[in-house]
């Protein structure tokens, strides 16, 4: 029963390619919810998603997803999860609608439910006009949207989304965010990797940062910001535009000292104090700027 409520559990999980150790012993326990995995290029995000979704085996350690061992209970687990990868995996010889109907039926929806859900998703992702066209005629962005729609058609217990919004325009990104939020509200958990920190900030209950083979941070967006610390004093011009930023340690003493100095030099200047952004947290943790 200990594992019953855990969504994902890792014990000393390792994975390498040749001499390159990518995951160096990950330990983790995640409850159901929306989780975002961040990390610089090549950190091993896709490798971890592939292990959790049973596509790749780890070298050592254990991974349990929905209480099932990813190796021993592979077949069972595959019926409970869905995966959208970085590359569109829809069938180009079928139309958009046919692809979604096929996925819906595979996930056990009735023909009628699959048709209704397919029409709804095609509409939300602005593919309704191309619904009857062969996917081979779709642009890369349209294929990607269809691929995402296919993974959302049923309500699996857990959906893995590997960089789902890379290459999507703002409207499609927003449509996907709305879908993710709605699915999560209906009880589906989401594990997504992303290069966009705003995406993690907006969507995720919990954010994990993978760097150098280890999970170097794990918490809510505000916990990560608190942890990194350091508020910034922003100076504004008469139009409210930020003209200058002064980093501080975030302590009352440091803020007070700097504000006193500012007040003496420029008594009329307008100021606000802001917490670190997730970009600043990411930079501090990984030494790299996010995409
Ligand atoms: N099949 C493979 N064979 C050899 N090396 C691999 C293989 N798959 C991944 N790697 C290497 O493992 C490391 C992690 O790759 P991975 O794709 O998991 O990173 P990522 O964090 O998802 O990166 P990105 O943000 O660029 O997608 C990289 O150095 C990559 O070159």
TrEMBL record:
This is ABC-2 type transport system ATP-binding protein. One of its GO terms (molecular function) is ATP binding. Residues 8-237 form the ABC transporter domain. It is a peripheral membrane protein. It comes from Actinomadura algeriensis. Keywords: Antibiotic resistance, ATP-binding, Nucleotide-binding, Transport. SUPFAM superfamilies: P-loop containing nucleoside triphosphate hydrolases. It holds the Pfam family ABC_tran.
């Amino acid at each position: 029963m200990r594992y019953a409520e855990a969504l994902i559990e890792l014990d000393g999980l390792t994975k390498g390619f040749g001499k390159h150790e990518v995951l160096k012993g990950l330990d983790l326990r995640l409850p159901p919810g929306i989780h975002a995995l961040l990390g610089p290029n090549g950190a091993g995000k896709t490798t971890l998603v592939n292990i959790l979704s049973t596509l790749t085996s780890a070298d050592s350690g254990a991974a349990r997803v929905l209480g099932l061992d990813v190796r021993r209970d592979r077949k069972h687990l595959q019926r409970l999860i869905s995966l959208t990868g970085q590359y569109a995996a829809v069938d180009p010889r079928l139309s958009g609608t046919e692809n979604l109907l096929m996925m819906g039926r595979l996930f056990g929806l009735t023909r009628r439910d699959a048709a209704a859900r397919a029409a709804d998703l095609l509409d939300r992702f602005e593919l309704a006009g191309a619904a009857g066209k062969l996917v081979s005629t779709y642009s890369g962005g349209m294929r990607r949207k269809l691929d995402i729609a296919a993974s959302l058609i049923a309500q699996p217990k857990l959906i893995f989304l590997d960089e789902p919004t890379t290459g999507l325009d703002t409207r499609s990104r927003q449509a996907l965010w709305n879908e993710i939020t709605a699915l999560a509200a209906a009880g589906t958990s989401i594990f997504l990797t992303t290069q966009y920190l705003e995406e993690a900030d907006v969507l995720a209950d919990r954010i994990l940062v993978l760097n150098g083979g280890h999970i170097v941070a794990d918490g809510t967006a505000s916990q990560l910001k608190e942890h990194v610390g350091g508020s910034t004093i922003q100076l504004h011009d008469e139009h409210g535009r930020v003209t200058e930023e002064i980093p501080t340690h975030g302590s009352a003493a440091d803020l007070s000292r700097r504000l006193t100095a500012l007040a003496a030099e420029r008594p009329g200047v307008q100021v606000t104090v802001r917490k670190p952004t997730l970009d600043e947290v990411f930079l501090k943790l990984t030494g790299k700027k996010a995409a």
